[in-house]
Design a protein that fits this description.
Length: 702
Amino acid sequence: MSAPPRRVRIGIDTGGTFTDVVAVDEETGQTTTTKTPSTPADPAEGFLAGVRKVLDLMGLEGDAVTAVSHGTTVATNQLLEGKLDRIGFITTEGYESVLEIARQSVPDGYGNSYFWVKPPRIVPADLVRTVRGRLDPTGAEVRPLDEDDARAAARFFADAGITTIGVCFLHAYANDAHERRVLEVIREEHPDAVVSISSEVLREYREYERSVTTLVDAGVKPKVGAYVTNIRTRLDEIAPGVPFYVMKSNGGVLSAQEVVHQPITTMLSGPAAGALGAALIAGTAGFDRVLTCDGGGTSTDVTVVVDGEPTLTTEGSVGDYPSKIPMIDVVTVGAGGGSIAWISPEGTLKVGPQSAGADPGPICYPDGGDEPTVTDAHVVLGRIPPHLLGGEIPLSVEAARKGLAALGGELDLSLERAATGILEISAWNQANALRQVTVARGLDVRDFTLTTFGGSGSLLACRLMDILGLPRTLVPPNPGNVSAFGLLTVDVRNDYVQTVVSKHADLDLDRVRGVYADLEEQAHVALDGEGFARAEQRMQRTADLRYVGQAFEVRVPVADGELDAAAAEEVAQAFHAAHRQLYGYDFADDPRQAVEWVNLRVSGIGPIRRPDVVELPGRDGGTDRAVTGSRRVFFDAVQSSPSSGGDWVDTPTYDRPALAPGDVVSGPAIIEEFGSTVPVHPGFAATVDTYGNLLLTKESGR
């Protein structure tokens, strides 16, 4: 009897330099990984080359593929680079200045607004048009919509050549009738326009955030739509009709045909996938409280995972644009391998956020730049080998030494002190980002296991453990491919929200139950369209609550089943507890301080089979089998002799794939694999667990 045909799912994460590919066998759970150069001029080309390459490695044809999941930075890069086409904005009469007024707040880091320059608005004042008509907060019509105004606005944008339009009316979250009618008018008067309306993008109050979120959705829609449609068409040449999913910021995926209508949901596509992949790997290894640290060439993304689930927020932003869509709570810091070291006007050493990127790259790269970077510091100190990707990219140690010596000369520092200073600043930048997602959220950073991945994510792991007092660091196998692996762990997920402001004591339970029922039906219909049977679908309810008078809310879970008075009271008690954890106090015992419900939320989840994290067999012979040689490595005084300022140590190098479960490598040591390097400092040890993860811990007495 012949074996059944193999079936595989493929995850593809497109980065600035490389496209990472992971395929998982649906029967055995085993994974196959590879990389292919990214193709910025036509990202679809690198994507399809990755699909073909991994299928060739597995000896399979396109008909073996059951699904393809993709993490894309198209929307993110467009926003960060400010490359948005001209956008038109239609809003309620009297609210034409909502974008200018914004929140009247100055970003953190500016002690005096005199020094802060307000960034350009996403829509200039001359491209804002207003329409008469008014709704009250309950959605009741106070003044009918003036269709003549709507037609005049549509014709204005058509005449001006504006083909991207956002529509946001006051209180449209409570009643979408006016926005929908304007959408019909625009389609009649300006049929070529790409339009987003706020009641479809974000059915939530706060006019400024809803306006910007809607305009961002409209702004990225043309480019994201063209990109996804192009890949879908060309993917059909390899695997006709195969399901194609795109990663969303909320930790779910969405089919390509739906992403075209919800492009804003893909803004943090890549970092979200990495957080989920790291969460699954660490959870399988037995750790449920995890900090993820995804180190790339330009930046490092950090998140917090509790009980296997990355923390979500609706207070995120990309670049200058606040976006209240649900997204994994990612903090990004400009501390990657390509971050440039420079001297401030005050004469102090700084690192980042400017980056040398992949082109020209660090000084040590072939045809590299002329400014020293974090990678140059690592290579000069021997922390990474004089090549990358198994020898594909040779590195010039001598060129890096010259660049760092020149920088050190300006600061009156030796070569070693200049290099360790760069790495120390980079480590503290990453540590501060990790504090933002823990300490600033009411969590004790010392309760968490650090999980590092990405090409540069593990290079500073030992130093981060010292700075933050972390008990251990987990480094997965093939850490550069964790984001692509994470794409294969993700369920289909859609989020729905409705603002319903009410004091807890006056809560209309019938209305709340009705809103939840409507939101759940929307979620069911969307999952029906994704091919999930009703019996498979899972609904997750939450609510945003606050104390009356507060400006912001705290999200808490709402249990399944009948929402009666007792269940509503449980939600209020959960809010008190969450508020206490976040801010250190609550008013649970103070009847004078009323609780207020603000937003009701439903997430519709269509579960996908997750890949297995496979246990590895043990091997005899000890760690000597993995030793590949040695080189001199400089470890700074924090890990060695404080009086010496640091030491050059003859350090053994290990081939990570040759290590086996149970092996222990004591520092100083350098553990290398195709896509990453792990320096094990003196006083630390790396233990290989049953899944091939490296567990870095401090040795006794440290």
